[in-house]
Write a structure and sequence with these properties.
globular, 150 residues, mainly alpha, two-stranded antiparallel ribbon
């Protein structure tokens, strides 16, 4: 499993690099696409990252015009994070990358085997308390993409 995970991570990093992102950038963009308005603190908790790391990620994404900080209407001390129009376009690109990535990784399996594999992965992820939004496509398609890596 570790070899397959390393292979998947390496290939995904290559694909995201082609559009100027790191896998961490892609994860933040995908999560904000699914949960717009998260605070930096909430985002750090969801990612399992230290808040200072998230601040630098958001700073970088904001400088590139992909994410914006908007003062919270409920707590003026906090900012909500939202994708900009450019960030939404990148999210769309990431969906295509995720589909191509998954298709390539699952190519050795039949359609039935791939569906069973995805169900088993979802069960393992759930059993270990992993956040499904970190590995889920932003567009529901009947659950087929329950655990996409991008």
């Amino acid at each position: 499993m570790s070899q397959l995970g390393a292979l998947a991570a390496s290939r995904f990093a290559e694909r995201t690099r082609e559009i100027g992102l790191t896998p961490s950038d892609a994860g933040v963009i995908r999560l904000l696409g699914r949960a717009p308005g998260l605070s930096q603190r909430s985002l750090a908790e969801r990612l399992g990252a230290v808040p200072s790391r998230v601040v630098s990620l958001i700073d970088s994404l904001q400088e590139r015009g992909l994410v914006e900080r908007v003062r919270s209407s409920t707590d003026r001390r906090n900012y909500e994070l939202h994708l900009t129009d450019a960030g939404q376009r990148v999210l769309h690109d990431l969906r295509g990358i995720a589909e191509k990535h998954e298709k390539e990784l699952l190519a050795p399996l039949s359609g039935e085997q791939a569906a069973q594999f995805e169900l088993l992965l979802a069960q393992l992820a759930d059993g270990h308390g992993l956040d499904p939004d970190l590995h889920r496509d932003s567009v529901h398609d009947g659950g087929r993409s329950a655990r996409r890596k991008a």
